[in-house]
Amino acid sequence: MPVLSAQQIRQWDEYTIQHEPIASIDLMERAASACYEWLEKHRYLPGSFAIFCGKGNNGGDGLALARMLSMSDSKVIVYILEFGHKGTSDFQTNLATLHKSNAEIKFIQTADQLPPLKDEEIIIDALLGSGLNRPLDGFTAQVVNHMNASGNKIIAIDIPTGLFVDKSSKGNLVIKAKHTLTFQCQKPAFLVAENAEYIGEVHILDIGLDQRFLENVDPSVHWVDRSFIKKIYKPRNAFSHKGNFGHTLLVTGSLGKMGAAILAGRACLRGGSGLVTLHIPRSGLQIIQTAVPEAMCMLDPNENCITQPVQDLGKYDAIGIGPGLGTTEDTAIFLKRLLSGYSDPMVLDADALNIVAFHDLHQEIPKHSIITPHPKEFERLFGKVENDFARIEKAREQAQSLQITIVLKGHHTFIAAPDGKGYFNSTGNAGMATGGTGDVLTGLITSLLGQHYEPTQAAILGVYLHGAAGDLAAMHLSLESIIASDLVDHLGMIVLS
Questions:
Q1: pLDDT (average), residues 192-206
Q2: How far apart are CA 331 and CA 14, in angstroms?
């Protein structure tokens, strides 16, 4: 499923109206019905509702919903922002119909008309939708402040008022919704951390937009869900042997950080690698041979860190480097030599990325490699940014410039591909915000790269499986108690075929 811009969402509405065909007022009715059914399913009915409407089509959705709620024995008061002009045609039609219902209708245009809200009232935000093009001001801003200050539960229709669909709203006044009932597809605004306090829980409601529209759209950003992943996943042939699934090399670990090597190594094996070799400091041998008996070890001459090049790199199908590596000068020299002498794609994470940033080795990264920075590592690599949207845009620019895949880790991890396309991941949860989960991801992506998935596909599939393992862990454990090893332990429970 694509992640669409505000303009593409409008075009999809228009396409459906023209090609189904369906009148716009009837499409509005579908949207309101979907919201009503959600409220009914989640046991909000009958209830007491304060519905705030602008005079655009988002307000029209609110009016149609108000009529439906008033027929369910709910108490409904509708507050319409009055600026002295008529609303859209569909708004006016729904307003005329609403006058025949039991809903109470009030027009408000000054601050002293703002209503006191009762504790039991649920606020429905239908002020402004996805067509917003400037920050809130004037009376609209006063109304939003009043709604936010009430302490009442707010449910936003389509998108919280004040939130831009596809650019940053950082620093702007925005409705703080508990739930957002949006339509048909994910929107960029719902996928970035800076909007978390505004969107609450997002629920995508199907309103029957014509799917043929998507056949003619070339979206630059995709939503990675199970259906997307099933197109990438390669089932195993019954006559396969370990040689078919790659020999993976992980360069990892330093004194005091061998846990990272264990996590990456175990994830690499659970990810399906036929053979796994870990290049580690000499002091880590007993640790790895005990904790990861399925892996082979190659020892660096140095007792405490990685210093020497790996021999015969050609026998490995993929190389991952970084977890627990450390950033000593000897290790930095090692990485410089490795990057300058190796041309196939590799996976770089953690301290490998810090070394690249500290020593300006960006251009040395082999083409089509995969890097997996968290936001702070990303800043070290590419500089500070003002907001999440700017970070995503910079990731896309750098992925194209360096011809690599960038995995920008977060709640909805963003994968920037060298062809300019982007992918938001659908799996994962807050329980995964704990040390070592990044090491698991590195091992998993390296494993998939070694199994001959294309680099961007390896990144997409690895991120999805990583999050799915976290979701399975959350089903058995509390979010607070999840540790990185739990992700490895749950990888084998994911079924894609």
A1: 97
A2: 58
Q: Which amino acid is at 403?
A: Q
* CATH number, residue 171: 3.40.50.10260
Distance set, CA 477 to CA 406, 432, 470, 486 (Å) = 31, 12, 10, 9
DSSP label at residue 452: T
Under DSSP, is residue 180 helix (H, G, I), strand (E, B) or coil?
Answer: strand
Please report the pLDDT score of residue 385 as a whole number.
97
Instruction: Convert the pLDDT of each residue in 379-418 to its tens digit.
Output: 999 999 999 999 999 999 999 999 999 999 999 999 999 9
Q: Look up the pTM and report it.
A: 0.95
Q: Contact 487/465 with Cβ under 8 angstroms?
A: no
Cα(347)–Cα(319) distance, rounded to whole angstroms? 6
Share of the chain above pLDDT 90, in %: 96
Measured in Å, how far apart are the chain's first and last C-alpha atoms?
19
Other beta carbons within 10 Å of 111: 11
Q: Would you say residue 399 lies in a domain?
A: yes
Residue 204 near residue 186 (C-beta atoms within 8 A)? yes
Q: Which of 448, 28, 474 is nearest to 268 (CA)?
A: 448
Residue with tokens 């090399």: 249
Q: Which domain holds residue 409?
A: 228-491
Asked if residue 412 is part of any domain, the answer here is: yes
For residue 21, pLDDT over 80 is answered with yes
Question: Is the bond into 21 cis (omega within 30 degrees of 0)?
Answer: yes
Q: Could you tell me the strand order of the sheet in which 414-416 lies?
A: 221-224, 422-425, 414-416, 405-408, 370-371, 347-348, 318-321, 247-251, 275-281, 296-300
**Dist CA 175 CA 259 (whole Å):** 44
Q: Mark which of 219, 237, 269 sits at the end of a domain.
A: 219
What order of strands is seen across the sheet that includes strand 121-126?
A: 104-108, 75-81, 48-53, 121-126, 154-157, 179-183, 201-205
- Which H or E run contains 422? strand 422-425
> What's the alpha-carbon Rg for the chain, to the nearest Å?
26
Q: What angle do CA 311, 316, 319 make, to 5 degrees?
A: 90
| Average pLDDT score over residue span 441-446 | 98
354 and 452 inside one domain = yes
Could you give the count of Cα atoms lying within 13 Å of 146 in the half-sphere of its Cβ? 21
Residue 348 covered by a domain: yes
Please, what sign has the CA dihedral across residues 451, 455, 461, 464?
Answer: positive
Verify that 180 and 292 share a domain, yes or no: no
Provide the token pair at 30: 């579908």
